[in-house]
Amino acid sequence: MLLQNKVIVITGGAGLIGRSISQAIIQQGGTVVIADISEELGLKVQTEIDPTRSRSLFVTMDITSQANITQTIEKIHQHYGRIDALVNNAYPRTKNWGKNNFYHFDFEDFCENMRLQLGGYVLTSQQFALYFKNQGFGNIVSMSSIMGVYAPKFENYEGTDMDSVIDYSIIKAGINHMTRWMAKYLANTGIRVNAIAPGGIYNQAHPQPQSFLEKYRKCCTSKGMMNPDDLNGTLIYLLSDMSACVNGQILVVDDGWGL
């Protein structure tokens, strides 16, 4: 029970990865706050992973609204009296996300995705850091991607309608450096800041094309595309006291894809 008595906020807690890590936190003795912009999905996930709702709380949260974030923090504080950690995991994006070809670029759409994703992570981290600093301790973990660490392997996408867009790589690289910057800036405040850079996650509801999966597997060392549960061990480690001296790190979990 590595997270006994810890209160942990997961943004995007109703998503594919959010649901898995929320459940893992409960299994490790923690209390999870499922923070998501969708009340319907958030309450559904809460019921599935915590039927009695004794180890969880759902809050509606928009990571691009400072007023909403501060109100959410106050609501959580009133409910539990403390917050031990924030996991930046939300994935807001425009309707045209993923359609920007580098040679035919919608600059406004590009800027909006920067605001939603990278801007949302910075804003959420800032507001929670203010709370943590006043509290005297805190922990921030952000979900990044190997696309923020390595250059894409564009050949894996050939013959599919998938692509690795520049927006995504820049956002994830920004999250990685935001992590290092905040770890240094918040030194001696009792706040740790780290990130996880996952490899590709298999989406069972909307499976990736078979040709992509086969090419991707050849880049890895054991299984290829991962399941959301494959990230849980690393996240639990970073949220627990076992990683008390780990700060400013980007932990890559990619089955050797980057080798």
Please specify the SSE layout and strand pairing.
Elements: E1 7-11, H1 16-27, E2 31-36, H2 39-49, E3 56-60, H3 66-80, E4 85-88, H4 107-135, E5 138-143, H5 166-185, E6 191-198, H6 210-218, H7 232-239, E7 250-253
Parallel strand pairs: 1-2, 1-4, 2-3, 4-5, 5-6, 6-7
Helix pairs in contact: 3-4, 4-5
User: Which stretches are poorly predicted, pLDDT < 50 over at least 5 residues?
Assistant: none
Number of strands: 7
**Rg from alpha-carbon coordinates:** 18 Å
| Count of folded domains | 1
CATH topology type: Rossmann fold
CATH architecture: 3-Layer(aba) Sandwich
- Name the beta content range: 5-15%
Let me know the CATH homologous superfamily.
Answer: NAD(P)-binding Rossmann-like Domain
Order of helices and strands: EHEHEHEHEHEHHE
Helical amount: 40-55%
Main sheet summary: 7 strands, parallel
Number of H- or I-type helical stretches: 7
CATH class: Alpha Beta
SS content category: alpha/beta
Write down the overall geometry: globular
Report what the structure shows.
The protein has one domain: Rossmann fold (3-Layer(aba) Sandwich), CATH 3.40.50.720. It is globular and about 55 Å long. Strand 4, helix 4 and strand 5 form a beta-alpha-beta unit. Helix 3 runs parallel beside helix 4. A seven-stranded parallel sheet has the order 3-2-1-4-5-6-7, with helices on both faces. 40% of the residues lie in helices and 15% in strands. The mean pLDDT is 97. By secondary structure, the chain is an alpha/beta fold. It contains seven helices and seven strands.
